[in-house]
Design goal:
three-stranded antiparallel beta sheet; 4 helices; about 15% strand; alpha+beta; 3 strands; elongated; single chain
Length: about 120
């Protein structure tokens, strides 16, 4: 099983600051409780009327669950394609592996990370 090097999920999106001027994304403790800003700050995104900052903040906040979901789907796909010679040339499998590597900084398969899910 791979140990997460990032702040454990789920991450929580909150609007804070004067007139809700910023988005803050906070992590969770191992028990799933929200961490305080000093201990669990993942990101601070200033609100902007020009850029889609709220959409960006929501996507960032969903990152741990998206990573877990992708790993789970990759594990299922690898299991379904086991025994086929073309598993490593399947574009979707390659894309999923590349996305996981980009997110974690290391290559792994869905099989190796199935236990990392936050349920």
């Amino acid at each position: 099983m791979n140990e997460a090097k990032h702040t454990p999920g789920p991450w929580h999106l909150e609007e804070m600051g004067y007139n809700s001027s910023s988005y803050y994304i906070r992590g969770s403790s191992e028990s799933g409780a929200r961490l305080t800003m000093g201990k669990g700050a993942v990101a601070h995104i200033p609100r902007s009327t020009v850029n889609p900052m709220e959409a960006n903040a929501r996507l960032i906040a969903a990152a741990p669950e998206l990573l877990d979901a992708l790993r789970g789907l990759l594990a299922l796909e690898e299991e379904n394609l086991r025994g086929y010679d073309d598993i490593d040339v399947c574009a979707e499998v390659q894309f999923a592996r590349a996305a996981i590597t980009k997110a974690t900084g290391r290559a792994d398969s869905g099989q190796a990370a199935q236990g990392d899910r936050h349920e």
